[in-house]
Amino acid sequence: MGKIEQVFEDKSIKTKAKVSMLGEWLLNNELSLEELVSFAEHQHGADKATCIESIADATKKRPTLANEHLLAYVTRTLTDTEPRIKWESAKVIGNIAQLFPEQVERSIANLLQNTTNAGTVVRWATAYALAEILKLKTANYSELQLVIEKCCEEEEDNGVKRKYLDALKKLKT
């Protein structure tokens, strides 16, 4: 049994500790991103979300851990039915978008599907990712800006709305 499997088999390790442990292993090169993504691809629900959350935490500290395979993976998982998987995937995209400005079109499409999700945390993480992509001013950013302005108008939660407004303000500076 591999090291990742042992972490998930040990029921005495709480979720936050698992996230922290896996994230530290990624940052310390004790675990490869490919190995963790490969493991996550075969998990469901909470375990998959825990893997993605550890990647989100690690890429927040060091975005350069990411590669195109990770971007493709978290872009796909944005369409998962599990809310936590959606929001952790969006956080990863927000953390790494600056590394892949020309490859985020598919991510944008999947993120836009989550802008009206019933879950506030899903919408907040989606707003974070879209805001980070908007700041890159890629080829279609003016189109994305219009969509974000519309999302901002329709959003009822102030925390989510603030994410959009902050990104729109940064465009003007």
Summary tags:
mainly alpha, 10 helices, 173 residues, globular
Overview of this protein structure:
This protein has 173 residues and is an all-alpha fold. Helix content is 72%, strand content 0%. It is built from ten helices and no strands. Helix 3 (33-41) packs antiparallel against helix 4 (45-61), helix 8 runs antiparallel to helix 9 (141-154) and helix 8 (120-135) packs parallel to helix 10 (158-172). The model has no long low-confidence stretch (mean pLDDT 95).
Quick recap:
The protein is an all-alpha fold.
N-to-C order of helices and strands: HHHHHHHHHH
**Termini separation:** 52 Å
What fraction of the residues are assigned to beta strands by DSSP?
under 5%
User: How many individual helices?
Assistant: 10
Describe the global form.
globular
- Strand segment tally: 0
Measured as a percent range, the helix fraction is over 70%
Mean pLDDT: 95
Q: The biggest beta sheet, please?
A: none
Cα radius of gyration in angstroms: 16 Å
Structural class: mainly alpha
User: Are there runs of 5+ residues with pLDDT below 50, and where?
Assistant: none
